[in-house]
Amino acid sequence: MATIVDITEEKALEVKKFEFTYASADEPSIKKLDMPIAKNSITALIGPSGCGKTTLLRSFNRMHDLYPGNKYNGEILFKNRNILTSKEDLINLRIQIGMIFQKPTAFPMSIFDNVAYGMKLQGIKNKTELADRVEKALTDAAIWKEVKDRLKHDANGLSGGQQQRLCIARAIAVEPEVLLFDEPTSALDPISTAGIEELVVELKERVSIIIVTHNMQQAARVSDYTGFMYLGELIELGRTEELFVTPKEKLTEEYITGKFG
Amino acid sequence: MTHTQKRIITNNIVMILSTLSAVIGIGFLFWILGVLVMNGVDALSMTIFMEEGAPPGYEESGLKHALIGQLIIVSVATLFGVPLGILAGTYLSEYGQKSKLAETIRDISDIMMSAPSIVIGAFVYAIVVVPMGHFSGWAGSIALTIIMLPIILRTTDDMLQLVPSTLREAAFALGAPKYKVITQVVYRGAKAGILTGILLGVARVAGETAPLLFTSFNDNFLNTDMMEPMASLTVTMYNYATSPYEDWQRLGWAAAFILSMFILSLNIIGRLLIMKRKGK
Amino acid sequence: MSTKYDNKIDEIRGLISTLLENIVVANQISLEAFCSHKEDAFKEVQEKLNNIAIQGDIIDNEIIKTFALFGPEAKELRTLVAYLKMTNEIVRIGEGVKKYTRRMKDHTSSDVNLVPLESTIVQLHKSTIKALEYILKCFQDLDGCKIEEYYRKVMVEESKNDDMFSILEKEIMTLIIEERELSPEYVKVLGTLRKLERSCDRSVNIANLMLYAKEGGEIRVYS
Predict the structure, then answer these.
(1) pLDDT for B145-197, tens place per residue?
(2) How confident is the model at residue B14 (pLDDT cuts 50, 70, 90)?
(3) How far apart are CA C89 and CA C63, in angstroms?
(4) Chain A residues closer than 8 Å to C9 by CB
(5) Helical H runs in A158-205?
């Protein structure tokens, strides 16, 4: 049974007895997992490769549905409903729960069109509204100054760190409630990484954030809560400043001190 | 002789042999072009583009009928072949993916690409020309479409698969429905590749002669009615070049030259597009 | 490092600053009480220094958290280690002031005659406070202050302090010879005064630690 600390904040998401099996697998990759996600906080998921942290992350916005044959069991509660049902409107869900990927994924279009993409999908056509929200999103992603004079340029001309900020701007332009970060800095250099980490900390004022990282130090620096996963189970969820000083589970302690993984 | 020395000599021998082969290959290309240019440029003149075909010996004799006919047949084939090919390629890459059906389609497409074009011509003869009772431009275009289809299908399939899956996921993650992900993101990412595929497909069918022999047959006069047999540059070139008449033979060379230049430029544009993409 | 780390460091500095300030003020009140012979002033000191041990623990735990979460290196590592050891010294100084004040209160109400010692005691106490004030001043403006300068000033106070204490030792010896029945009391007084002297030594330790944080090398606190 996992050791889970009591969350003082409101819950943005709650995972209940969640199980996930990949299409080609015999055994579930995630086993009867329970986990609360605090609102307006940063929850980090750490654990050795194959522990299921990315699998869990991609379940929050049902990314697994893109590939046939995957099976969900249990519940993930978001705004008082279980988002794992077949009735769930996936398009609406993904507007409210956005995702940033490991490799920066700028679309092959201009910087402006990239940021406006999500909004245009929702049917927003008014040019002024689009322009304003694009500017706001780029400002919040701390990249407005660098790109304001070349909004019509192709996004592929930006550096890796800039592209990742662009992807963040693109995601926050649709004003989501939750943002999922899948190892967002593992493809970036240390300076860009530091910039993205600062940005993530600022963003938590407006969004609830879940970040998967294989870099423990990043989890320690950035997050409010940390969940340690191992072999598809949640071993421990605790306040970051307590977990890294006095972890309650032996497995957590071994992982943090580098005894495995 | 030491081991190293042996190695160096073998290295050099292989290098010389491969360079020689390349030179020979390129040499042939330039030889062909050279002969074409020499014989074809001679016969080029404005009358070629202005006059229709005429009996041998006539002064006002040109290739207008053949050029226009070729244009019509190839354009119609492109009009059919490109959308079909792209849609089929899209199905394979985005929907079928690795399924049995998709893999079967890919295999069949590969086989069709290596099918002799004359066989395809005979096939279209059987299913279109015979029921219609006569040759027609439509039959010619259908034959060319069948030849073009696998090329465009394969290129589209390959180019779309090259678009990284994370790009699609990123679009989905913003709430895009599948068709928008394909049209707004994936197509844009594979734009240059698909265009190249189209150009190469068109270049391939523009030079076909055999399939047209049984389908559009040929015409010595200008005809824009697709229900009737139509002139084509390739068949006309075949006829004129094998005829005993000197002025017809000269026209044949001109036709060969024009055709080669057309296909050569299509190929060059296609490759320039690829280079431009890579340069970005 | 990131702003989160900077915020944490500022928080820790603030806590240490507050603790140090409380002790300096308490020390000043203690001196006041001695000079004006006011008994309740002694109580004020006790109240002010009531929970310095707890405050020290809080600071220590924050520093441990910072180590765990941020894994600092180089100057940041030395600074954090210096703060950890400084906190220890500061709490000891505080405990010393508490004990001194309590014992001095007992001495003033006992039979010993402190009048001949008064002026020297005041000077000893003043120099102890001065050394602490230098430390506080430097700490409150850690980035701007010239540590070497303050180090020298603290050393000067420390040597003054040592001289005062030697004089007091001699004077108390004299008093012991004159009033032999009160000798155990006088020995106690010496012990009490030694607390002030030790506090001044600890100020030097703290100055050493600040120097270590800035320049590095190896810790050599108790020189």
Answers:
(1) 999 999 999 999 999 999 999 999 999 999 999 999 999 999 998 988 898 88
(2) very high
(3) 15
(4) none
(5) 160-172, 190-203
List the single residue in A221, A240, A244 with the smallest CB-CB distance to C2.
A221
Could you tell me which residues are beta bridge partners of residue A82? A77
* Distance of alpha carbon C191 from alpha carbon C202, whole angstroms: 17
Establish if A222 touches chain C: CB-CB under 8 angstroms: yes
Do the chains contact at A245 and C64, CB–CB below 8 Å? yes
- The three-state DSSP-derived secondary structure of A28-91 is CCEEEEEEEEECCCEEEEECCCCCCHHHHHHHHCCHHHHCCCCEEEEEEEECCEECCCCCCCHH
- CB atoms B173 and A109 under 8 Å: no
Query: What are the percentages of helix, strand and coil residues in chain C, rounded to 5?
Result: 85, 0, 15
- The answer to whether A67 touches B98, Cβ cutoff 8 Å, is no
Report the predicted TM-score, pTM, of the whole model to 2 decimal places.
0.82
Domain-wise residue ranges, chain B: 3-43, 64-279
Residue C223: is its pLDDT beyond 80? Answer: no
Q: What is the ipTM of this complex?
A: 0.91
Distance CA C196, CA C157 (A): 12
- Tokens of residue B47, six digits: 């009358």
> What count of other Cβ atoms lies within 10 Å of the Cβ of residue C99?
14
Stretch B73-77: mean pLDDT: 92
| Fold annotation for B64-279 | MetI-like fold (1.10.3720)
Nearest-5° angle of CA A126, CA A132, CA A137? 120
Query: Which among C129, C142, C135 is positioned nearest to C25, based on CA atoms?
Result: C129
pLDDT tens, position by position, C23-40: 999 999 989 888 887 777
Is residue C193 a contact partner of residue C120, using CB atoms and an 8 Å limit? no
